[in-house]
Amino acid sequence: MLKDLIKNKKAKIGIIGLGYVGLPIAIEIAAKGFKVIGIDIDGERVKQINRGSSFISDVESATLRKYVRDGMISATTSPAQLRSCDVILICVPTPVTANKEPDLLPVIQSTKWIRHHLRRDQLIIMKSTTYPETTDKVLLPILEESGLKVGKDFFLAFCPERIDPGNKRYGVINTPVVIGGVTRHCTRIAAFFYKHFVDSVHAVSSARAAEMSKILENTFRNVNIALVNEFAQLCERMGNINIWEVIEAASTKPFGFMPFVPGPGVGGHCIPIDPYYLSWKAREYDFHTVFIELSARINEEMPYFVVNKTIEVLSQSGVCPNKSKVLLLGMAFKRDISDLRASPAMKIYEIIKQRVGMVDYHDPHVPQLVIGGRRVRSIELNKKTIRMYDIVVILTDHSKYDYNFITKNARLIVDTRNAIKDGPRVFKLGQGMKR
Question: Which of 85, 91, 270, 320 is catalytic?
Fold first, then answer.
């Protein structure tokens, strides 16, 4: 019956969590003719979606408005709507605690909502990034408290999200998806559903394999970013080697090398989080992911490295750091988006504020933010304002920035993204101090 509903596009799709993952998926599913109902605990977000107003740069408000107006997308704070859904996607956050341990409370609460409204012939797909065995050992026991049996009465699978905010080339539709079910039948029905709105589906043998594939993808990036960040620190220590020149040279090799670049740290929801999910789970098996944990630590220390470099540039230029005025450019975790999740720029703001006289920021995509419990607004960037600051620190290389203008008017520049050509007042990450 469920396959027939999906095939005829009569299946109603429920999405728990309407953030950076849930909302883009809702749009693409609705575009293929399925009705979507989103459930979110944020009442203001629900109202905004029902007005057709998007808060995510990857989703155009005009597009969202069309589907809301046509009755293809609606949002609610009521989990009771889950009973009417044939397919339910869990797209809630999976953060870590202050002790770097997994915080699955949003996932557990979502699963309890589903259990309370679970009925036969429902497909539940976990999309939130997590450690291997979460689907089998956390979600499944909760759902089977209903008395229904997986693979027979309902179906459960894991399909990792692969949303890359701001990526204009790869989106929900043309990025292959990985699917692993708790049973073979669960895998087949989940893959059948996804084939109705994405280009490519890769089925694996289990939910555990799918969960581990997502962790591998992000840990791969984390480890390689850490490697090049450590190279950048060594180049600075040596004083006469430019890491950006080194990367460019190494990239000429047509095989056996993949370029990664240094920066002020790593951001977004997944890459800073996933290594800790994996290392926490590994300890259950008396296994210690030393290499992975070390890479996470290197990347977490980069904001301190950037602040220390900024203080050093100020001091060597004859400016007293604790009386200096500092301007940070770019607070989002990557270029041309407004996403602040785990952004290293936020951490840099908090650290440097304790060591300088004044700190402000500008970001064309982030008009205001809350940091340290205080609301801060982006300054206006013009010739008069930029000349007020003793130093400008480029943390996110947004394409809207006029780097010639910045170079011409800033007194000193610390460039963590290689956004500016060399100059007498430009100090790059991974390049020793000018003597």
Answer: 270
